Amino acid sequence: MFAVLTFDRDPMQIQDVPMGLLSWIQVAGGWAAAGVLIWLLTGYRRMRAEEKAHISPWLKRAFVLSVVVSVLGYVAAGLGALATLLPKFPPALAYYAIGFGFTAGGVGGLLAAGLPFALGLASVRFRRIWALAKLSFKEAIRNRVLYGFSAMLLVLLFGSWFIPYKPEYQVRSYVGVVYWVMKILLLVTAIILAAFSIPTDIRRQTIHTIVTKPVERFEIVLGRFFGFTALMTLVLILMTSVSVVYVLRGVDPEAAAESLKAREPLYGTLHFENTGSAERGTNVGREWDYRSYITASAPNQEPQAAIWDFPNVPRSLADRDSVRSEFGFDIYRTTKGFENRGVSCKFEFQTANFNPRDKDSYNTDRGRWMGKGNLFSQKDIDEWLEGYRTRLSSASPPSNLNDRLEKKRARLTANKMSGDPPQYRLSETDIDDELAEEYGYFVLPAKDITDYHTQYIDVPAGLFRNAFQVSSTAARPGASGVQARVSVTQQSSTQYVGMAKYDLYLRLDDTKGGHEVAAFTANFYKGAFGLWLRLCLVTGLAVALSTYLSGVISMLVAGILYLGGGVIDYIQSIGLGTAPGGGPMEALFRLANRQVALIPLDEGTAATIATTSDVIFRWFIRRVLDLIPDVDRYDLTTYVGEGFNIPLTHLLLDVGVLGLYLLPWFIAAYYLLKWREIAGPT
Amino acid sequence: MASPFQRQAFYRKVTYGALILGLFTLALAWRKGELKLFGMDIKGVDAQARDLSIREQSRGEVDWLGALARISTIGTRGAATCLLWVNALDAQKKNQWNELELYARSLTKLQPHFITPWIFQSWNLAYNVSVESDRVNDKYFYISRGIGLLAEGERQNRDNPDIRWSIGFFTQHKICQSDETNVLRSLSQLSMIPPNERDPGRFWKVSEGGRQEINLRELEDFCKMHPQLVRRLRQGIRKERRSEMLRQFRCERAEDMVQFLQDNFRVPSLWIDPRDSSEPGTWKEKQDAQKPLADRFPVLPPYHKTARPFQQPPDETALHDESRLLDEHDGFQVARAWFSYAQEPVPKPGNLPGHTEPIENPVVQRIPKHMMTIIFRSHPCLATRSTAERLMDEGWFDESGWAIPDWFRDTGDRFSDNKPALIGGGRAWSQDAWKAARDRWYDFGKVNRLLLEPSEQKNLEQRASAFARKKHIRVTDPAPPMRDEEMDPETKEEYFAFQFLRELGMYKTLCNFDVHYNRSQVESDVATIKARKIFFEALEAQRLRNNESEALRKYLDPDGMKAWRDKVLLSNKSYRTESLIQEQTFEIQLRYIDLYSRLNGRAFKAQAARLLAMPFQNPPGCGACPVGLASWIPPLIEKDWNNPLLGGPFDGNDSEGEPLVPEQARKQLLQRLFPSLFNTTTQDQPASPSSSEQQR
Q1: What distance in Å separates the CA atoms of residue B208 and residue A582, rounded to the nearest whole number?
Q2: Nearest neighbour of B93 by CB, restricted to A169, A288, A340
Q3: Beta partners for A348?
Q4: Where are the alpha helices (DSSP H) in B94-124?
Q5: pLDDT tens digits, one per residue of A53-71
Q6: In chain B, positions 166-185, which contact chain A (CB-CB < 8 Å)?
Q7: Distance between CA atoms of A235 and A258, rounded to whole angstroms?
Q8: Would the CB atoms of A167 and B276 count as touching at under 8 Å?
Q9: Does the beta-carbon distance from A452 to B145 stay under 8 Å?
Q10: Phi, psi (degrees; rounded to nearest 5) at B214
Q11: What secondary structure letter does DSSP report for A504?
């Protein structure tokens, strides 16, 4: 599908941040509390008396307080969980107690683990980190790691020979391939560099030359991280620049029309009417259940419709000549239909001010004014204005009635033709624009839809001017909070048209701007920023792991965690028990009993044991899930390839999520390297 | 002299050097050597590898990118292939066709000599993916990609009959036999025409007033060069139902055709893609260059004059990659080229009908895996027949050509030389095509021992009967197992004849040889072609011009229904007993009666009302005439041929008393044409046990 972004999960929005933070506190705090507990049981007892004496009393008190808060929190959560088993206890209170308890426990755990870390950071100096980063940078170059990137040349030189594409897919294909190659080359190199650096230093004992100097151990971690990241960033910038030139050279016109741009879409919310469910349309049996389908209803039934509501339309749209609405729908045919012709759909655009009772009046007016052949006499103009005045005055006339009428007169008479009596030229677009502003309604009765190509409708900006007018007439019921609405109905009962929330949108960017290549180039770099975030992720992860594990193990663990992030949805489905076939014990049971995955399990003791074991297994999987990064979040290739602008908020949120993911790893690295016996007293 | 230690070191070095040299020489000889010793062939590693075809080069073209990819997987090829396969499935599920193709191509690069992925993924692209696109040119694109992928597989896996056959089958099936074949056939022809020749800018000219209008001179040239394409675009092809006919894509105006050329200017083709079409009025004639062989579509087998060792000779009449493709060439002919090419690695036919000689060299000879060899061998003939049928469906029968309606209305339907706007004349299209089909079936019958001379047949029957008598069995019984040493030479011959006749009957039935051969003979007859042309014109007059009286006159032409009955059906027994012909005959009758009742409805109904009083059953679809009547009053029908009230023209019997159109054929056709009225499948089915139990 073109000009359409498909999301298995809705992208993160600003409004999701509080819930995300809460969830992070609970997860990271849980791990921190577990770490503190382990330390209390094993590490604290091993501390020497002088070490204990070095700890300031207020830190001790803060630590104890945090631990107490954490313990109390988890006790509350435990009691809440027990309360859910009591039939008379209010479940809402029990779940509140669980949520609150986990949050309090998490906060306590984070404080207990984070306070010494935060204090330790106070003695960290950027100057030393910078020196260590430079060292890492130089070491990596001396190790000739940059030679590996020459593989990129292969793609740049010969890629176009072997990348198959349909002309309109050219940009998508090239973008996909160059990002994929950059990803492999950069991530593999970064993970190897980061994972082997500290363990090699320890093995060769070259680390002694550093730790014996007045350097904080955590500065080594940060130095390595920043050094490698800086090197990889430079390589990434270079590769991205070369890649963007590669993608932009010799772009096919069809591909340019589809993808060589950076659309700024305004998405609405989708619901269906007369399909039996507001959330879903008809299911045509496609394996990928992403889209819902509508068809033409029987003659006596209300038509099935897909409706997009736009609650927040920017005011700037009203100042344009027209606003482009792009869409890409799927077609499912049950009969052949007419050869070489698409499926006809009706598109209705309306604002909250539009009254459905005015549809007939709109159609009469449109037929009448369109029939004038673009030339209007003074009498026609007067009649039009009089009709407009009557409609506005029918309920409670707006305060600026005369102002509106004068503005309209000015627009209608703007293009005066020479001759006597004078005539005024109004194109069909002008007429539609005026009527759209007048009624808050614009309709395209029959548009042939075809799939796998971008289609669009230029909506008169008058519609949006209407959206920002204060309504004088009774608007349609249930329209409050919705500034614009697009309704799509289908006209053939033997064909189905499939659509999803992100399949139709309004273009916020100016489609006549002519800066598409520049916008695409900027977007390409934003896409590379997503790759940079993944680079930071693997580098940080590998460096943190290498503070305790050997180089190979660090590399493998970091690699596995990263790859696990690629299939996080599947792991999540196992952790939540929604994967078909259940957990490992249930799967084993089914295998032994030759039961297919989709039918319910036979009841019995063995089955109960299997499913109960899986509950425990799922608990562990959910804990592992906490460690796995959501790497697909940072994959912005689709945005670039499809020609959609990557919103700045998206990038900022990604940075925030990455920071929150890496922070616990760095805290762990801080302690692990601190407690590691390198050049310490024996 | 050096010290003893140095001497020792020196000797050691010399010894090792000599050993290394000797071993390398031996290894080289072992690798490159090839000699005959005492009558024995002693072959080195290279020669053995060549003979066994285990080298990349000896299996076909070497794809260096694939080789690089295989090496770069450093032993994880299996895992990488699985991952790619899963990704391909996922991409297909999410309708990401470009990604799917990328995965499919990567898969085949990793395992280039595993045939199934080539065939499966190319089928996937040509069928499953193409059908998901709504626009026909998108469909065509993915058909071309699927076939292109398979052609790449063929180049890397020489001598594989299944791949070659699949390329041919995909081509003919998807382009010439699919639902939207009218557009797809046209697109296929566009693929063969140089872009400059079909440049839409060529057909526009800008008048002095700045108006854009059709350049009739250029249009005329194009129509003359591509009559079949033009006719198909203008009026479509014959379809069973009127509604289907009208739903076809057609270009009512010349402007529509130019728009079609514009929409499909960059169709996958033999030619290097131009960036864009020329602006109206700026077109200039120029020579287009062809793409490299690997990128061309339609794909054709490589040109070669002689057979490879142990293989069958190439079909010299089939198309190849050096052939100049013309307007008359279609997907069936391309398919035939591949079907013929697929025969080359198959061993020669054996002595018994339908049998195959044993494989002598398994490296270059292969038996097709997915169908019986005799059916596999018949595909070139089937494709030739399909071309002849296509010509009939598109209205190309004789030398008279086709008059282009409407496009040249401004010049009085005349070309610039004041001659009528008639194209495609001067060639007996149908006859030539059916004769070619007949010749191919003849050769096929002879080579595979399915077509015998009467004397030969008689001789075999006599000997087979003698054997049956000796063994006290019937001629139709299975051949008893016999050992050579048990039989004297005469019995051997008789046993062979017995076996031969048994295999002959079986294999003839298997590949429907008699029907195909006889049909191609009858269809190439002038009387048949004339009658078919008249029926086609009648249908065209009725459907496209809505001229029913003209259609009725056509049916009543002496060369029409009458000739069809007397000269075609009654003169060719095997032809008239073929169910397809019987159904076609009955369809003609139905159409005629329908027309007659429309045009002479009032009188017809009055006569019918009188006749219906007769106590006979009125059979379905044969006019108002009771079924028996036609058989016992044929002279009446002869006398008043044009009044179907007395019976349909084909209601009578042949000289052997068999009906020309038996009840079964009528029923079949009626069920096909009017499924809602005549579909009695559910009634004919035996009641299921559960339903009978319920009834009880």
Answers
A1: 77
A2: A288
A3: A443, A487
A4: 97-110, 115-123
A5: 888 888 899 999 999 999 9
A6: 179-180, 182-183
A7: 30
A8: no
A9: no
A10: -70, 135
A11: E
